[in-house]
Structures are given as C-alpha cells and as structure tokens.
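Title: Comparing notes on inverse folding

I've been comparing how different people in this forum approach sequence design from structure. To keep things fair, I'm posting one structure and asking everyone to reply with a full sequence. Here's the target:
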C-alpha cells in the first residue's frame, strides 16, 4: 500500500503540471484586458509601465514558468519561514493579485476558513443524511419511504443552487424570519449565544449545498445496496441464521460502500464548485466569492491559483478514493 501511494503521488506531479498548463492557456485565450480597470485619464506611458510591472510584457512561456516556480517553490518557502522563523523566501517574488496587489495565497488563507466551514458542514450533513436514506430505501424498495426519498433526490438533481437558495431565502428568511438572509463573515464565536448565531446563519447555505450532496449519494447508495442484496452470499448468510441487521449493515453495506466511496471522494471538489454560486448569494466571504470577483476584474493570477487548487483537490481525492478501496474490500490489492 505504501509503495502504491508513493507511486500515485509521484505520478500526480506531471498530471498537475499539465493541468496547470491547460488552465494557463485557457486564461491566455480568454477575452479581456487586466488594464481595463485603469482609469482612462492615466497616460499611455504610465499604463505601459504598469503592464510591465504586472509581468504582462514577458512571453507566455516565461510567465507560466514563473508562476510554477512561485506556486510550488516560493509559497512553500514562505509558509516554512512563517512557521519556523527562517528566511528562505526573503527577496523572492510571490504570486501577486493584479486586483489587490497583495499575495494571492494570503487572500486564499483569509477566505479559506469561511469556505471550509460552510462547505465542510454541508458535505458532512449531506453524507450523514444520504447514507441512511439510501440504505433504508434499498432495504424497503418501493415503499412510501423509498418513494419519498426518490422525490427528494429528484428535487436535489433538478434544482440548481441559485434557484433553491432563492426559494429557501424567501421561505425561511423573508416570510418566517427564522434565519438570517446574509451570512456575516465578521462574526466571531466567543460564547454560546454567538455560537448559536453562527449555526443559524450557516443553516441556509449548508442546506443549499447539502441538498445536491444528499440527492447524489443517496441514489448511489440505494443502487449499490440493491445490487448487493440480490447476491448469492446474502442468501447464504441468511440461510446460516445470521441476524438481518448483521447481514445488511455488515456484509451488504461494506461491499456497497466501494462505489459510494468514489462518489464521496470525487464529490468534494464539485461541492466547492457549487459554493461559488452559493457564497455569492448569501454573501459568504469565501473562495467562491474571491474567484468570481477575480474573474470580473480579469485578475488572472488569482483565477489561475484558485482554479488550480480545486484541480489539486480533484487529483488528491482520486488517490484517496483508490486507497480506501483496499480498506473496504480485502480482495482489492494495490501492487
């Protein structure tokens, strides 16, 4: 397992470099000029100096190589210096946002806690709801519970986040007044009252993101459970006199979780994509809002960095899913 993990991590490096190149080329072909935000009263010679200062006067291969060096070498050295008090990154240039003129990774670290709170909570809640629904729906196939679960899953698949968010805001914030409409990112948890407010203001964005997660994973769980409930080993286990709970929750569930693990692991980056819209609707000052504002401002270094970090998540959770296969199914061995 250790050899397989190391091999996958080594192979992930060229994969990520190719992904970074594709992102860079797509942004190079995108319309728009970063200097469009500069007032027209600025003289042409000053505008040209600003363009050179941003690195726009260099060839594309040079800018791509510089970004790779800054992301993979300079930023880790900056983190190391901040943690251990060394000076490896002293005098080096970091990835700078064209919009704010500040290091992109500092912007990311400022926004990351808000995104992780909302996205992480939504994903955990979605999984905790989806797995029991999928298991019981399969065990009680075509029952009223199964039909209700199918209906909820259909809603989760059909309603995009921007639509379901508006519906929830109108019902629970405007008409009922139970939860805040806008997420207060400046709120700090210091006591029980502030914690309850943090939970209340997180309910709507978490519900919007958890709805799609619940719909997807519950359907995968149900389909996988149905496939395994029809297998011969289930009839054999029942014939041996094993309790029904043991047959379903140990033997069937363990084999059924193998394809579901893939869905759960690969769904982590996709929920970050859903957070891009949700954060802007509820005013969550997270990575999704940062990405959209950077796209509007043609802030290519920020867009490239945030997009690449999402790609890293996809590759990383692919590896995690493969490793979990071996833990769930002893028949799978990584050579």
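Reply #1:
Here's my take.
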């Amino acid at each position: 397992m250790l050899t397989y993990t190391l091999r996958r991590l080594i192979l992930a490096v060229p994969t990520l470099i190719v992904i970074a190149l594709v992102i860079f080329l797509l942004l190079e072909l995108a319309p728009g000029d970063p200097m469009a935000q500069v007032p027209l009263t600025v003289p042409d010679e000053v505008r040209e100096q600003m363009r050179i200062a941003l690195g726009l006067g260099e060839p594309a291969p040079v800018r791509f190589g510089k970004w790779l060096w800054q992301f993979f070498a300079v930023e880790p050295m900056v983190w190391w210096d901040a943690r251990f008090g060394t000076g490896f990154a002293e005098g080096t240039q970091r990835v700078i946002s064209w919009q704010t003129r500040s290091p992109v990774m500092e912007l990311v670290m400022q926004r990351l806690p808000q995104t992780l709170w909302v996205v992480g909570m939504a994903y955990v809640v979605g999984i905790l709801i989806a797995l029991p629904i999928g298991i019981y729906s399969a065990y009680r196939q075509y029952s009223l519970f199964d039909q209700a679960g199918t209906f909820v899953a259909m809603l989760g698949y059909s309603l995009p986040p921007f639509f379901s968010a508006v519906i929830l805001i109108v019902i629970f914030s405007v008409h009922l007044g139970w939860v805040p409409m806008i997420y207060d990112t400046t709120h700090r948890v210091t006591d029980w009252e502030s914690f309850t407010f943090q939970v209340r203001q997180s309910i709507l964005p978490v519900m919007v993101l958890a709805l799609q997660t619940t719909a997807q994973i519950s359907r995968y769980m149900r389909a996988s459970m149905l496939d395994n409930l029809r297998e011969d080993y289930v009839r054999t286990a029942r014939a041996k006199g094993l309790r029904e709970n043991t047959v379903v929750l140990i033997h069937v569930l363990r084999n059924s979780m193998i394809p579901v693990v893939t869905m759960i692991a690969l769904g982590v980056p996709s929920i970050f994509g859903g957070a891009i819209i949700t954060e802007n609707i509820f005013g969550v000052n997270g990575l999704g809002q940062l990405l959209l504002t950077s796209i509007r401002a043609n802030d290519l270094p920020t867009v490239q960095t945030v997009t690449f970090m999402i790609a890293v998540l996809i590759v990383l959770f692919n590896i995690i899913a493969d490793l979990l296969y071996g833990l769930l199914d002893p028949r799978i061995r990584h050579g």
